[in-house]
Amino acid sequence: MLPRDLASRLFEDLRVLSCEEMEGRATGTAGAERARRYLEERFDQIGLEPLGDGWRLPFELGDVAGVNLAGLLPGREAGLGWLAVVAHYDHLGIVDGELHPGADDNASGVAALLAAAAVLARLEPRRGVLFLAPDGEERGQAGSAALVEDDALPLERLELVVNLDMLSRSASGELWAAGTSHFPELAGRLRKLARRAPVALRLGHDRPDPEGERPDWTEESDHAAFHRAGVPWLYFGVEDHDDYHTPGDTFERIDRDFYLGAVETVIGLLAELAEEG
Ligand SMILES: [Zn+2]
Fold first, then answer.
1. How far does the centroid of ligand 1 lie from the alpha carbon of residue 253, in Å?
2. How far is the CA of 109 from the centre of ligand 1 (A)?
3. Per residue in 68-92, pLDDT tens?
């Protein structure tokens, strides 16, 4: 269970990131800059450490500047490999005069990343955990592609990447965990997690499906860059909904119970993995 103070903070972070002033957080906009300032302040409050001089890892994206954010929670045992939690903070912005707030996509993942950081910071786990908030996911996953090439990121230290992209609503009440068909050694752990999870946690969406019923999401979000770089990953997210990539993806329409359950499920896994040697 997420402690009460962190649960209310989770919803507050989601609300702020998807509010009007953030202008839908499109890459290269003033709204994205406001989102970054907010996230930097939260990283600092939680007690994360920058990888180098600051939280920002800039990259070029055509005519605009993209900025990834990274914060590290050092582990008790310096020699162990790190976990990485990834959640893109950018969204579509204002399109044809209409605000696309991107509450589920992906303020929900970023607020979950902050909650995970806060929980793990209190636990002081054995393993270091790196928190990555890429920009430019909505522009061809440009931020994560730049991250895996960034010299500031010691890719070889990463044992597992856990990508969070859309966690806050599901008509069927299902949270999907993708990746175990590529990394079958993780399947048993996830099935165990599913048995005690407060949401219906299902494994899949990670292999070709000629029938088209359960599309392969291996290339569909920021875990793809890590996949190509040979880093094991898991992706947590929901099926697309009617408000996906529309002005209707608002804070008011998230399913609070489902979201809280999804976040607790993911944090349960992270806490377990971070404590293992
Ligand atoms: Zn997304």
1. 16
2. 8
3. 999 999 999 999 999 999 999 999 9
